[in-house]
């Protein structure tokens, strides 16, 4: 029988050992499984490997010895009990023991924890209405009640048959009758919310009254107007951040990541390496301060084209911490709701009233901070508003700049007139807005001559300056702006003007093109009416895929050195810089040159003026110096966060106080994370695959990776690591040379060696050249043997795609910066 390595309890089977782990030790960190059979003491990282190993000991432990006082030679063992441990009944009619210790339902707190986790997971799913949770609870209570009655009847029958003593019967009945006690605190929503609130995992949003409105009430014979409070929902950020940083390894991983960043001299990977944050930290050397990103956007929870459009248009402010490890920054569960209100209330009452509660909370976090006490860290952490993010309209609307981009001065970064903007290829540094000029413009209050509608309310946040701390958004400026105009012109030019190919051919190639890792954002077919109006109907993620592979999709129709095609090449170079999560110091100057050349070519060949979104690109080089990689500032993940509210709103018919309804759902989703105590696993596995020629594969692994012994080897169909999925036929970057082409490998198989080492079996590819026309690397497969490379030794963790085009050659499109 297997033995639990934690409490040393004997279990009847490996299956019951697994159940024992789930119930008895639900709070244990199973980062390692240790075999204690016959002093084996081998350790495993994966449960499957541990269970396979235990099966080798089963022949040695087919039966339990007679040392247990609860089991006699005639005892009956009842397995798969619904409680924490095995349900063991001594059955000896001739001489029943006087007293027996019954362990079946002793661990009530563990049962309660498991039940609370189940309910928390239901609440955290926005597709499950809260009234359905009540139905599930009632159903579970009914099942448990049935099991309880069945157990009572069984024990009563055993007593009647003299199979058990009166003492055992009373002890069992006491335990069985206590089953209901585990569920009483979950019987109603009030009790459930109180339970999670007392636990500290559910942080209830605060309802703030911001004013009044008059509501019309019409009855059959009467008409009344009643005043009603206008409210918004504020989430106590001090509680959220404290609970978040106290999750397992979150703060320690954050501090480790920040210390790692400080060692980078030539590569910029994070906001804290930018000039803005360095300037702020010069006077705060001895205090741990973490930057805060705020994002604002308006969104419609209902049908934006329906009869009620605009009625339930909401304004949301989200918060993120840019210093958590990079693979966690884009996760939606690490984006927190800070404020939720009706957009119409902001128009009516103004920014000062709407944002004042949030500003007060930010000032508290800056001045007082929060106290954290966890293993390995005890101290105070303060937070400072680092940057306000959003699309241009969103940023302008809450920071006091003009909301019309046809105004005389539509730019918040510089004071350029709209007539000059239309042909501008380089930013005029002398027109950059200064603090002195800004204050003077606010005092004058002339919108037409300044582009400023009101003083920025966020200046009430201590240490914040709007001219230095508002971001840019490559999603709306570049992907849904410049790229849309560029591709509309290019397709129109080649299809309508030069007739090099037809739109039907382009659409067919889009349909049958292998987008590889980007297949989830495959662009839809195009419509010529939209192209003529420069309104290509593609989402930002679809536009990313279209721009990335446009050269391979249609480039074989375009003659080499075609002058108009150079516009695509420049756009593609800008694209690579903007979507890169890291860049070399000095890359901002290259971006400035590329943007200038791009704008010049667009004006020259399209015969069109530049739109405001082209102008914002002129400032991107200075934004890179201030804030680091610009992809870390984009709206993509924040807009994905809107989906939770939209789904929750559609599953609920309640519109009486939609802000409160959705804010509570956001916090219930956060409750599901907090109650687990960690952010979850970073690795997910696909199904395992049978391995052929195991010995030869192990020998090759040992040669390639200097692994002395291979105790276990498992092959998987696919694996997801830190959000990136790897599977056969994808391409990995094996090596990067400064003066040579990178080396690539085509994934054949994926292995886990010794329960911890992730290995890719790859066919080596020979890089022939970088073809700028297709903007891809031309490669050919080498005839040598396959190689094994570990995940940790990869210079880039972004999987790439390989395609064969009409000339029969193979090309690799690099999806991440090299």
UniProtKB/TrEMBL annotation:
Signal peptide region: none
Domain C2H2-type, chain residue ranges per copy: 33-62
Protein name: C2H2-type domain-containing protein
SMART domains, sorted: ZnF_C2H2
Alphabetized UniProt keyword annotations: Metal-binding, Zinc, Zinc-finger
GO molecular function ontology, one term from the record: zinc ion binding
């Amino acid at each position: 029988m297997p033995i639990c390595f934690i409490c040393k309890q004997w279990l009847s089977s490996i299956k019951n050992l697994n159940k024992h782990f789930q119930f008895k030790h639900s709070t244990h960190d199973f980062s390692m499984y240790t075999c204690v059979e016959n002093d084996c003491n081998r350790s495993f990282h994966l449960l499957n490997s541990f269970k396979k190993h235990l099966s080798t000991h089963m022949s040695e432990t087919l039966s339990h010895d007679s040392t247990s006082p609860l089991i006699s030679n005639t005892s009956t063992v009842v397995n798969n009990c619904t409680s924490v441990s095995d349900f063991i009944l001594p059955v000896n009619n001739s001489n029943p023991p006087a007293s027996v210790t019954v362990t079946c339902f002793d661990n009530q707190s563990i049962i309660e924890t498991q039940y609370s986790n189940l309910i928390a997971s239901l609440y955290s799913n926005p597709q499950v209405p809260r009234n359905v949770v009540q139905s599930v609870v009632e159903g579970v209570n009914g099942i448990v009640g049935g099991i309880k009655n069945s157990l009572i009847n069984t024990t009563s029958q055993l007593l009647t048959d003299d199979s058990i003593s009166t003492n055992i019967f009373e002890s069992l009945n006491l335990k069985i009758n206590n089953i209901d006690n585990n569920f009483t605190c979950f019987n109603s929503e009030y009790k459930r919310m109180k339970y999670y609130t007392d636990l500290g995992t559910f942080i209830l949003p605060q309802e703030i009254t911001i004013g009044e409105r008059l509501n019309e009430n019409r009855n059959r014979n009467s008409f009344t107007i009643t005043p009603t409070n206008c409210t918004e929902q504020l989430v106590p950020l001090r509680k959220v951040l404290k609970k978040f940083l106290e999750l397992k390894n979150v703060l320690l991983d954050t501090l480790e990541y920040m210390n790692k960043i400080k060692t980078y001299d030539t590569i910029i990977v994070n906001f804290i390496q930018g000039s803005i944050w360095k300037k702020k930290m010069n006077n705060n050397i001895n205090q741990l301060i973490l930057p805060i990103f705020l994002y604002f956007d308006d969104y419609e929870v209902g049908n934006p084209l329906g009869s009620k459009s605009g009625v339930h248009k909401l304004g949301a402010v989200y918060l993120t911490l840019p210093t958590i490890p990079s693979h966690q920054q884009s996760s939606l569960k690490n984006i927190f709701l800070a404020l939720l209100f009706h957009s119409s209330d902001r128009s009516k009452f103004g920014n000062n009233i709407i944002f004042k509660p949030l500003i007060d909370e930010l000032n508290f976090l800056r001045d007082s901070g929060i106290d954290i006490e966890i293993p390995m860290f005890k101290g105070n952490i303060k937070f400072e508003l680092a940057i306000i993010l959003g699309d241009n309209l969103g940023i302008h609307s809450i920071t006091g700049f003009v909301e019309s981009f046809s105004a005389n001065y539509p730019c918040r970064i510089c004071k350029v007139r709209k007539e000059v903007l239309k042909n501008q290829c380089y930013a005029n540094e002398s027109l950059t807005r200064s603090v002195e000029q800004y204050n003077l413009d606010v005092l004058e209050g002339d919108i037409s001559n300044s582009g400023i509608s009101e003083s920025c309310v966020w200046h009430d946040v201590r240490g914040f300056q709007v001219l230095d701390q508002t971001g840019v958004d490559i999603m709306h400026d570049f992907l849904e702006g410049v790229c849309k105009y560029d591709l509309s012109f290019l397709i129109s030019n080649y299809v309508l003007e030069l007739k090099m190919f037809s739109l039907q051919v382009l659409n067919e190639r889009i349909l049958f093109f292998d987008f590889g890792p980007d297949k989830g954002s495959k662009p839809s077919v195009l419509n010529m009416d939209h192209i003529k109006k420069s309104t290509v109907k593609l989402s930002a993620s679809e536009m990313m895929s279209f721009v990335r592979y446009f050269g391979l999709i249609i480039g074989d129709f375009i003659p080499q050195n075609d002058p108009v095609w150079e516009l695509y090449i420049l756009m593609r170079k800008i694209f690579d810089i903007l979507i890169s999560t890291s860049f070399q110091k000095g890359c901002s100057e290259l971006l400035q040159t590329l943007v200038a050349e791009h704008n010049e070519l667009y004006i020259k060949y399209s015969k069109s003026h530049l739109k405001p979104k082209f102008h914002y690109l002129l400032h991107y080089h200075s934004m890179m110096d201030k804030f680091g990689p610009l992809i870390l500032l984009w709206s993509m993940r924040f807009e994905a966060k809107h989906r939770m509210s939209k789904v929750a709103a559609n599953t609920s018919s309640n519109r009486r106080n939609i802000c409160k309804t959705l804010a509570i759902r956001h916090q219930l989703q956060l409750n599901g994370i907090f109650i687990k105590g960690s952010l979850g696993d970073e690795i997910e596995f696909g199904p395992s695959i049978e391995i052929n020629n195991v010995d030869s594969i192990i020998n090759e692994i040992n040669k390639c990776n200097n692994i002395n012994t291979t105790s276990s080897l498992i092959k998987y169909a696919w694996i997801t690591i830190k959000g990136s999925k790897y599977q056969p036929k994808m391409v990995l970057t094996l090596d990067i040379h400064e003066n040579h082409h990178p080396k690539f490998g085509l994934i054949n198989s994926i292995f886990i060696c010794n329960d911890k080492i992730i290995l890719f079996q790859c066919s080596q590819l020979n890089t022939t050249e970088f073809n700028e026309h297709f903007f891809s690397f031309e490669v050919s497969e080498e005839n040598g043997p396959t190689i094994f490379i570990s995940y940790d030794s990869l210079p880039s963790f972004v999987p790439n795609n390989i395609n064969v085009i009409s000339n029969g050659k193979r090309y690799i499109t690099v999806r991440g910066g090299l």
